[in-house]
Structure prediction request, 183 residues.
Amino acid sequence: MRREAATADREGFRSLRVLHHVVPGPGADPSGEWLRSELDLEEFAADTGAMVVCAYSGADWDLPVLQQIRCVHPHHVGSRPVSPAFRVYRTEQEGWTVTGTVDSDGAVAFGSILCTLLAHTPTVRLRCETVEFFDAAGMRALADAARHLPDRKIVLEGTNETVRLAWKLSGFAVPDVPVVMAP
Prediction:
């Protein structure tokens, strides 16, 4: 896709639109390939300015899998299954934005997303200006993901005072948890 995007740009096309019709494979695993694929498409869209539309037929997917998929899409249309109260999407060349509240309903999805990102880059930057709160389960997911690959680091930028204080008081602001929280 990147080669086609570069060709379209050289040929003077103003925009590129990509339709990604997603069907679950046998034994669709929410922590597996589909998550990496979705995050790759998000990076592609941010890097090229392309518009990527992912189409999911709800009848073909398990509800918990759809709930996790929804977390990595900045926008959606159609029926809205109940999902975690946060989103993660690409905003810059080297950063991601997190919005909402990372709580017990979305902690597993959040941890899976972070582990997937950490597997492909030594430092994951998360812009958190619109994160309202991490509950205990959300903080545990963040800490566990950071410990998953100890040679990697997670940097949370723009965290509010409540999030930073809760992180510290919960005992996670220690050297063996490679997470940096910055205002």
Observations:
- The longest strand covers residues 123-134.
- The two ends are 37 Å apart (CA to CA).
- The first helix runs from residue 2 to 10.
- The CA atoms of residues 40 and 117 lie 10 Å apart.
